Amino acid sequence: GESVGLHLPTLSVQEGDNSIINCAYSNSASDYFIWYKQESGKGPQFIIDIRSNMDKRQGQRVTVLLNKTVKHLSLQIAATQPGDSAVYFCAEIYDKVIFGPGTSLSVIP
Amino acid sequence: DAGVIQSPRHEVTEMGQEVTLRCKPISGHNSLFWYRQTMMRGLELLIYFNNNVPIDDSGMPEDRFSAKMPNASFSTLKIQPSEPRDSAVYFCASSLKALDDGYTFGSGTRLTVV
Fold first, then answer.
1. d(CA A13, nearest CA chain B) in Å
2. A–B: how many Cβ contacts below 8 A?
């Protein structure tokens, strides 16, 4: 079996605080980006997307920021709730979709 | 819509056996993707179809893996013969457009090869 696994970055946040999850992407030609949330035992779930002609997009309690200069993407979650506890993946799309390794968000009640 | 439907949810098989994973995409979606998720490698794209035609199978690990999409509402991923290192969660996802739309993932099939 596998003895070494991905070491997921972990973020612990107090309930009610804001969370910021970061992602560095690899391809400067990527023109579409998506954040996904994966809860234990479930498939990834689409949260929000952004295209390369934008630097910010807001959804319900979530905001995605895109900095193309440094190839950086972030997901901000306002007023974090226990139900936000999950692994969050960024995905960059150019001629294929590449998922990042994920960040585990743990919300402390 | 019931979303992307995968079966079985769990599969335990012995090494050397054939395994077939099934997927029903969302009706009207033109693109279908098979992903594998492990702790070691994270989410890996195995293959994707556009309008039932395989477009990119560069992620298929080896000839033991094959995927088909005989019609717009059904796809299979087959492993023959299976090996313990194939143990993973296999996800199917679909979208309206392959590289320009968010995906909807199924709940996955957890495969254990002993």
1. 23
2. 55
pLDDT band at A95 (very low <50, low <70, confident <90, very high): confident
Residues in a beta bridge with A19: A77
- What's the pLDDT tens digit per position in B7-23? 999 999 999 999 999 99
How far away is chain A from the Cα of B108, in angstroms, using its nearest Cα? 6
Per-residue pLDDT for A33 more than 90?
A: yes
Report the alpha-carbon distance of residue A46 to residue A88 in Å, rounded.
Answer: 10
Half-sphere exposure of A55 (CA within 13 A, CB side): 5
Q: Which chain A residues in 48-107 lie under 8 Å from chain B, judged by CB atoms?
A: 49, 89, 93-97, 99-102
Structural tokens at position A90: 């960024």
CB distance A21 to A102 below 8 Å: no
Cα A76 to Cα B20: distance, rounded to the nearest angstrom: 39
pLDDT band at A1 (very low <50, low <70, confident <90, very high): very low
Cα nearest neighbour of A39 on chain B: B107
Residue A3 — very low, low, confident or very high, per pLDDT cuts 50/70/90?
very low
Provide, as residue numbers in chain A, all residues whose Cβ is less than 8 Å from the Cβ of B38: 2, 5
**CA B6, CA B36: separation in Å to the nearest integer?**
13
Nearest-CA distance A102 → chain B (Å)? 8
